[in-house]
Structures are given as structure tokens and as C-alpha cells.
Amino acid sequence: MTDLFAKYDVPAPRYTSYPTVPFWSDSPGPTQWLDAIRTACDDETASWSLYFHLPFCETLCTFCACNTVITHDHGREATYINLLHKEWQLYREQVPALQRRPLRQLELGGGSPTFFSPDNLKRILEPILADIQIETAQFRASVEVDPRRTTREQLVALNSLGFNRISLGVQDFDPVVQKLVNREQPLEQTRNVTDMARELGYNSVNYDLIYGLPRQTPESFRQTVAQTVELRPDCIAVYSFARVPWIKPAQRSYKDEDLPVAGEKRALYEIARNLLAEAGYVEIGMDHFALPGDGLASAQRNGTLHRNFMGYTELRTQVLMGLGVSAISETPTCFHQNEKAFPVYERRVQQGEVPTLRGHLLSQEDRRLREQILTFMTRFEVQLEPSQSDDATVFLDPLLSDGLIEVRDQKLILTERGRPFLRNACMFFDQRLRQQDQRPKLFSQAL
Predict the structure, then answer these.
(1) Burial letters for 99-129: b for 16+ Cβ neighbours within 10 Å, e otherwise?
(2) 268: phi > 0 → left, psi -120 to 50 → alpha, else beta; which?
(3) Is the whole-model pTM more than 0.85?
(4) Where do the structural domains in the chain lie, given as residue ranges?
(5) What are the two backbone dihedrals, phi and then psi, of residue 25, each rounded to the nearest 5 degrees?
(6) Cα(181)–Cα(258) distance, rounded to whole angstroms?
(7) pLDDT number for residue 370
(8) What is the band of 323 on the pLDDT scale with cuts at 50, 70, 90?
(9) Which CATH architecture is the domain 21-361 placed in?
(10) Which of the residue ranges 247-256, 293-302, 305-314, 436-445 would you say has the lowest mean pLDDT?
(11) What is the DSSP string of 374-424?
(12) How does the average pLDDT of the chain come out, rounded?
């Protein structure tokens, strides 16, 4: 497998969308974006999801590629809350159907949502939740937290508003690695937040781990995974470190010789994958694992698992609404991203504008290929169109020869051996990428 890891360790998208963000071209204006939401909400059976991007962090984790604002000024919380409410008011006025359609998913991400005080977390959410319909039986509310800066009072406040899922940023338990990535977080902090969440009634706890960080070794990462298994989170994401220094200059602080690459890097993931399988976790999708009784594992078994900009989810809604600086939204026909520069986002919202930065109006072909990629990413097999079969055997010949995929009964099937190469196989469907004569450096390595 080491040779295969080296062979297929090429830049590749993660396919949280199709087309992928660098290939968004037919960008909607605010009017077109609002029309796309209205059209999606016209369906009487439609439901929606809501995401808040809370960008503030007190310190910079140098591995992070998210859009963040590093500050110790907690006075900024109130200003940002007002911006979120103004942005929501724009949608409330322009798309009144959002108030009639049930909200089925809610997520706070960042940044560090637990940068905000308990009272301010409630100030963000209470007016909006009081304004909309919630489908209680299927409602899922999740928050990403920084265990170093998470209090019982914050978890109590969120739980009182219906939050039942929590995701803890862990990355690695090794003190040497933590120091290098500026994220010193003792094991006991993670344990304490986990225990608090469970005691308060959060029924799903997720840990995020990252492989490929500086100075990670097979021995140290094995210990991190063993400690993770001991704490028994319901879900575990084992992400590949996305090294993109051309986007995040802080990553230039790492020495090349300190970073595991290609086969060495992927071997860390295989260590995690094997240990998690031994501990009873199910691989539900690309770099995601869950205990068999968790909702994500059930959705994967039932064929209802979905993947969007928030990650893997148990269900699919017609609208994903993102509020906040740089937040991404989607409907069946349109992608939309808010302004990424904080001053520009603030100015446009204060002026009463939908703060559109960019997006993409999906063509019929885009929508067809998007569905195939989504299916493949969540079920590891997908039906091919008759016109795709010959092309698949040619384009994917190396993966076929190496036993990583099969083309059988008009289906593309990812083999067990091929699980690490899911992103590589998805590139077959990516016509926009394939049509590029020259591919600029846009994506992190596939492995």
C-alpha cells in the first residue's frame, strides 16, 4: 500500500460541493440567490438547515485553514450578534417561506463558538429560534467547541435551546505536536468537556483528529488514537492536514522535514483506521467514523447519509442557510458565499444588503454530476450513466488495475482496499477539473 499512497498522493478536491469552489463560475447576484431560496421553499415538503459562522478565536492554531478573526476583545461579540440579526432580518423579509418551513438542522461553527459568553450565545439564537418552525422530532443542533475555552455554563445555555450534539477540536494529544501547532490542550481538558456534555444530555460527542501534522510519528499518533478510544466519543473525524500555505501563511512556519508526506502520512491514517475498527467504530465516509448506534452510522446503513458544507449529516434539507462572515449556503440549484473580509461583510450588512461574495448557479449537468459525487461519497458506489461506462474504464484504469475500484453492473464501486483513494476516484466525475489543460495549485494532497 505504501507504493499506492505515493502513486495517488496528488492534489485533489475534498468535494464538499460540486462544482468545487475554485471552479464556481456562474456567480449569482443577491436577487438570483434569493430567488433560488424561494424556489426551493415553494415545495410544501421542503425543510432547511441553518449554520452560523462565529469566526472569533483568542489564539491562532497554525494548522487551521478556516476563516477566523484572532482577538482577545470580547466586546466584539455584541457587534457581531447585531450583524447576524440584521442578516437574518434580510432573509426573513425577502423569503417569508423560511418561517413556515421546518428547521431540521442547526450548527454553530467557527472560529470558536465558545468564544461567546453563555448569555451572548442565547442572544444570538433565541430571537431567531422564536421566529421559525422547528421540526422537534428530527431536529439536530450541533456546536463546535474549543475544550480549552468551554464552560459548563455555555453548554447549559446551548442545551436549553435544543443543542444535542457537540464536536470537540482535539487534533492530537501529543504535547510536542500541540506546541508546534500552537494548540496546547491537556487530555484532561478534553475529558472534562466530554463528561460535562454527556452529563447535560448531549447524545452525540464528536472528536476531530488531524493526521499529517508536524512531528507526528506512528508511535505518537497511535497513542493519540488509543486515548481517543478510551474516551469513547460517538463519532470521530480523522482529517488529513490540508497544507495550503499559499492561502494560510502561518503554515509556512513548519519545516518540510518535520511533516510526514505521501506514504508516511497516510500510514498515520491507517493506524487510526485499524485501531478504530478494532474498537468497534464503523467507517461511514471519507475520514469519518461512528459507533454503530450513532445516528450517522444508522443513516449510512439506511442510505440516507448526506454530505454538505457542514460535513456528514443524517438527513438532507432543501436549503442550507449560512449566516455570518464567509458563511456558505446552498439550494438544489445554487451555491452562495458571504463576503470573507470582515469589514466588507459588516459594511454590506449594515447597508441592508445580502453580503454576496460569490457563488455558482448549477447547470443541469452540474446537478447530475453533483448527485453522483454525493452518492459515491456516502455509499461508496454509484450508478453510471450509459455514456460514462467506457470513459470510466479509461480514466480510472490505474485504480481498476490496482484493485481500488470496480466497474460492475453499470456501477462504480469503491473496494475496501480503495477507501483511502475516494477523492481520487471522485475526480472521474469532475468534468470542470478534467477540462483544465493546466491545473493551478488549488487543492491539498489527496492523501
Answers:
(1) eebbbbbbbbbbbbbbbbebebbbbbbeebb
(2) alpha
(3) yes
(4) 21-361, 364-434
(5) -130, -45
(6) 12
(7) 96
(8) very high
(9) Alpha-Beta Horseshoe (3.80)
(10) 436-445
(11) HHHHHHSEEEPPGGGHHHHHHHTHHHHHTTSEEEETTEEEE-STTGGGHHH
(12) 92
Q: Cell numbers 447549559 correspond to what residue?
A: 156
- Measure the CA–CA gap between 386 and 391, rounded to whole angstroms: 10
Note whether 10 and 427 are within 8 A (CB): no
Q: Which amino acid is at 201?
A: G
Which residues have CB under 8 Å from 239's CB, separation 6+?
A: 208, 209, 210, 211, 287
Cβ–Cβ contacts within 10 Å for residue 242, how many?
Answer: 17
Neighbours of 216 (CB within 10 A): 24
CATH of 364-434, one of 3.90.1150.10, 1.10.3470.10, 3.50.50.60, 1.10.10.920: 1.10.10.920
239-279 residue pLDDT tens = 988 766 666 677 777 777 888 877 788 889 999 999 999 99
228 CB-contact burial (10 Å; exposed 0-12 / middle 13-18 / buried 19+) = buried
Which helix (H) or strand (E) segment holds residue 338: the answer is strand 334-338
Residue 166's pLDDT is what?
A: 97
Strand spans (E) along 16-146: 48-54, 56-57, 69-70, 102-110, 133-134, 140-145
Judged against a pLDDT cut of 60, whether residue 442 lies above it is answered with: no
How confident is the model at residue 1, as a pLDDT? 64
Phi, psi of 144 (to 5 degrees): -85, 135
Query: How far is it, in rounded angstroms, from Cα 205 to Cα 156?
Result: 15
DSSP letter (8 states) at residue 280: T
